[in-house]
């Protein structure tokens, strides 16, 4: 049968005009049906509507020339290649092919007229084209009257083959239009058939720049339809989830009220709003799927704790999963401190716990004696059984793969889906929330608890490192503590570790009057915990660290953060690291040490982090600099990037697409189905977050 594609379609069967071997190659381009060819749109266009005399061809620019072949031979030095000389009335050009077929050599017989399309450059024997596109022609043969499309392709599938297959599909496939004409008219969009024909076969008077920049009305129509399909798929997934069963957990206000009355602080307005939204979701008999997003330090953990207690006071279990041991342990300690006075025990599951302790906790969870659990991905391993799991909380959810998030969900009772609460300290820009996260309900913590001091940010070049060391000395001798974060070195964890060790030794020598600690990912869990405990207790004044401290570390006395090679970090990471200070009442400072020369992107990132402290503004700039793919962690999130639409350039289309998706699903489900079939066939699952 051949290999199967994720949606269950087998490419090896082929379709009219396409045999099994070609079908296999087309599958690499995600083309499995004639319908898929309609939306296999050009990458760019080439202008073959005019000829350029050889003498007028400009270096570095594509051109089409027509001339007579005056010589053609296979040379062996410096390597085997096919070399032809072509002449027109204005001059002569050399054409070279380093990889060629015998058929090309035949087409270049002396005296024959050919057209060559390619970039002209200076060569050893005069102007030349390397690997130009070649077409034998009759003298005086008419030129095309429109731009020539160039398609994304793969080995073994030439442009001519794709053009032929696409033209056949345009003649064969029904190009019906499920989008109401009134909507198209209001948004100034052409019909579907008109749009795809205009993109595959641009009119002679089409604006080349508008086609190239994807600003042509035909492109706008395709982008709108793509956004609409994404909305339809995600909202349909959302509606399907609401049809599933989940434990109803009405607010009984016993444990939750007990926690609120013994906290040393009051909830902010934003926290109260989020707690109410989550509480209402938990009371429903269908599974909650909510994203709780809030800036660094906005108080997500207490909101999660209240949600977990609402499950517990109904006699059900709740689990909180965090991506790193440090963050998971921080959550465990907070929950333990808050809940122990209420007589509630919290299970702590991590890979580093002793086997006997771990097995004892697992047995109590399995028996339902323990209702709350906190852990790393150890929570989703097979031996962990939580038969009454009704709420799964996932912190820093973007750092887990889809399978890991699903594995936690599957821990519940058969036929009952646990409610899911995902938390993120990386605020999600509105356009991203409306598209890639359209199948979630979102709660936002957009205010910081009172008493949090603003953090000042300073940019310092690495030539002034001694001044920074002096600043650390002064802060620590004044009774404060400092973090010194070592650079992110993606190529080598070992190299990053060595840098951290070297920095630790340098600071220990430069600051003999202070106690300096070191923490990194290679330390055993108990060593990490001991170092963090010593820092939290004030026994260490300076903590040298790799990015393991990025999230979850909370030491109110630490008021100085130094980040080396800040230009190597992403904006979200810089903001997270900066958020480790400013947690007490003292004025806090974050010093970003950078090395010259700075790339344009690094300069843009440092400018944003220097000027902004609002996580939502930073996230918006981050989306602008990085694009949505990196932002949502597309490789692991299961969210495909939009192929054609841009969240920034086409943001005016998102709201109309969202509104139309809601209307179609409610009133015209068959039209919605037709659209989804056209775009994703049987692979709708790929569109879900």
Write up this protein.
The protein is of the alpha/beta class. 39% of the residues lie in helices and 18% in strands. It has 25 helices and 21 strands. A seven-stranded parallel sheet has the order 11-12-10-13-14-9-15, sandwiched between helices. Strands 16-21-20-17-19-18 form a six-stranded parallel sheet, with helices on both faces. It has a five-stranded mixed β-barrel with strand order 2-3-4-6-5. The radius of gyration is 31 Å and the shape is globular. It starts with 19 loop residues before the first helix and ends in a 9-residue tail after the last helix. Residues 478-629 form the Helicase C-terminal domain. Keywords: ATP-binding, DNA damage, DNA recombination, DNA repair, DNA-binding, Helicase, Hydrolase, Isomerase, Nucleotide-binding. One of its GO terms (molecular function) is 3'-5' DNA helicase activity. Its EC number is 5.6.2.4.
Outline type: globular
Proportion of beta-strand residues: 15-25%
- Spatial strand order of the main sheet: 11-12-10-13-14-9-15
Largest sheet: 7 strands, parallel
How much is the average pLDDT?
86
For the secondary structure, the number of strands is 21
Distance between the termini: 30 Å
Fraction in helix:
25-40%
Could you say what the CATH topology of the largest domain is called? Rossmann fold
In the residues, how many domains can be counted?
4
CATH class membership of the largest domain: Alpha Beta
Rg is 31 Å
CATH architecture assignment of the largest domain = 3-Layer(aba) Sandwich
Q: Count up the helices.
A: 25
């Amino acid at each position: 049968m051949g290999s199967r594609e994720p949606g269950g379609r087998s490419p090896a069967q082929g379709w009219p005009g396409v045999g099994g071997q070609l079908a296999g190659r087309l599958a690499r381009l995600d083309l499995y049906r004639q319908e898929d060819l309609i939306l296999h749109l050009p990458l760019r266009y080439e202008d073959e509507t005019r000829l350029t005399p050889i003498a007028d061809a400009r270096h570095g620019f594509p051109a089409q020339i027509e001339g007579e072949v005056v010589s053609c031979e296979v040379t062996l030095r410096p390597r085997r290649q096919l070399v032809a000389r072509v002449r027109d009335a204005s001059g002569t050009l050399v054409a070279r092919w380093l990889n060629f077929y015998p058929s090309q050599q035949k087409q270049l017989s002396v005296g024959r007229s050919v057209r060559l399309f390619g970039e002209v450059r200076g060569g050893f024997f005069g102007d030349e084209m390397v690997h130009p596109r070649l077409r034998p022609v009759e003298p005086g043969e008419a030129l095309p009257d429109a731009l020539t499309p160039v398609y994304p392709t793969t080995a073994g599938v030439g442009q001519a083959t794709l053009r032929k297959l696409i033209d056949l599909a345009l003649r064969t496939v029904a190009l019906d239009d499920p989008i109401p004409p009134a909507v198209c008219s209001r948004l100034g969009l052409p019909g579907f058939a008109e749009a795809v024909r205009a993109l595959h076969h641009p009119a002679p008077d089409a604006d080349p720049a508008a086609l190239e920049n994807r600003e042509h009305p035909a492109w706008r129509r395709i982008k709108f339809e793509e956004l609409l399909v994404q909305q339809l798929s995600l909202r349909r997934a959302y509606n399907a989830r609401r049809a599933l069963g989940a434990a109803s957990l009405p607010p009984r206000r016993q444990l939750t009220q007990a926690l609120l009355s013994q906290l040393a602080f009051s909830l902010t307005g934003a926290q109260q709003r989020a707690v109410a939204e989550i509480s209402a979701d938990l009371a429903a008999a269908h599974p909650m799927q909510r994203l709780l997003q809030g800036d660094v330090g906005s108080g997500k953990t207490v909101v999660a704790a209240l949600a977990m207690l609402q499950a517990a006071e109904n006699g059900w279990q709740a689990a909180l999963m965090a991506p790193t041991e440090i963050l998971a342990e921080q959550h465990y300690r907070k929950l333990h401190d808050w809940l122990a006075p209420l007589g509630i025990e919290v299970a702590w599951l991590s890979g580093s716990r002793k086997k006997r302790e771990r097995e004892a906790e697992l047995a109590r969870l399995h028996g339902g004696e323990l209702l709350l659990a906190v852990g790393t991905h150890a929570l989703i391993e097979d031996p962990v059984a939580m038969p009454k799991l009704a709420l799964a909380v996932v912190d820093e959810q973007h750092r887990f793969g889809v399978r890991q998030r699903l594995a936690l969900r599957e821990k519940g009772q058969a036929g009952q889906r646990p409610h899911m609460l995902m938390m993120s300290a990386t605020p999600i820009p509105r356009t991203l929330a409306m598209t890639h996260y359209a199948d979630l309900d979102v709660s936002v913590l957009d205010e910081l608890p009172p008493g949090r001091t603003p953090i000042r940010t300073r940019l310092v070049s690495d030539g002034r490192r001694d001044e920074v060391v002096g600043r650390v000395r002064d802060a620590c001798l004044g009774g404060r503590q400092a973090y010194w974060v070592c650079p992110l070195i993606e190529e080598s964890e070992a190299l990053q570790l060595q840098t951290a060790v070297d920095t630790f030794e340098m600071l220990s020598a430069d600051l003999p009057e202070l106690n300096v600690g070191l923490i990194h990912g290679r330390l055993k869990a108990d060593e990490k915990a001991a170092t963090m405990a010593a820092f939290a207790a004030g026994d260490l004044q300076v903590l040298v660290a790799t990015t393991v401290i990025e999230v979850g570390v909370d030491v109110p006395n630490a008021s100085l953060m130094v980040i080396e090679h800040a230009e190597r970090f992403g904006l979200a990471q810089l903001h997270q690291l900066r958020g480790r200070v400013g947690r007490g009442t003292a004025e806090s400072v974050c010093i970003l040490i950078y090395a010259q020369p700075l790339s344009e992107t690094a300069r843009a990132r440092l400018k944003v982090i220097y000027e902004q402290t609002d996580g939502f503004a930073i996230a918006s700039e981050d989306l602008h600099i990085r694009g949505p793919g990196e932002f949502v962690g597309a490789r692991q999130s299961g969210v495909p990037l939009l192929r054609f639409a841009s969240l920034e350039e086409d943001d005016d289309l998102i709201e109309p697409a969202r509104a139309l998706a809601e209307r179609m699903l409610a009133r015209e489900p068959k039209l919605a189905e037709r659209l989804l079939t056209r775009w994703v066939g049987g692979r709708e699952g790929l569109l879900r977050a």
